[in-house]
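Pilot study result, target chain (195 residues):
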Amino acid sequence: MLRNLLTIVTSLSVYASGNLSDQINLIRNPTHNAVYSPPYSPAATNDAARLLIIGDVHGMLDELKTLLDKADYKASRGDRVIFVGDLVNKGPESAGVVQYAMDINSTTVRGNHEDKVLRVWAGAEEARLQAEAKGKDGDKARKKFKKALSAGKKDALEVAESLSLEQRMWLAAAPVALRMGGLPGMGDVAVVHGG
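Predicted structure:
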């Protein structure tokens, strides 16, 4: 438990610090296991808070809002949302989806699309930093890095660049697996992305 708390505190301090090297390190070395807190335990009443687990939104903000409306999601009731990764890419509003997920105080695990977006952004920043450390033009090195990318990775970099620092670091702080503990009728539950 203490290790999980230290991981969260470390992630939050990197998130707030703005130190690029620490940000890149968090992207390259994600938290593998975290424990969902506070613990979720369903109540037996009809209007009790619910846990909604949603996967693969892929930048589709309007569709996400429609889904939550149809599921009768109510923050005022105490409903909680956990995303199973892949909030970004494919759809037109990756930054909007991430911001919305942050705004509703949801939790997410890192999917393969977040991983790709974050890692290609970190690679571009590392190319810039390495060039600058050698007294060269960092922006030129970053452009050269971008030019050498495949079309899919160029798209991923564009998505990364559309995200704010806060949004990127929120995704970077997401664990690969989120342990939910024991849920009635389900046993021990963990949320992970399948990709």
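One observation from the pilot: Residues 58 and 87 are 5 Å apart (CA to CA). A full batch analysis is planned for the follow-on phase.
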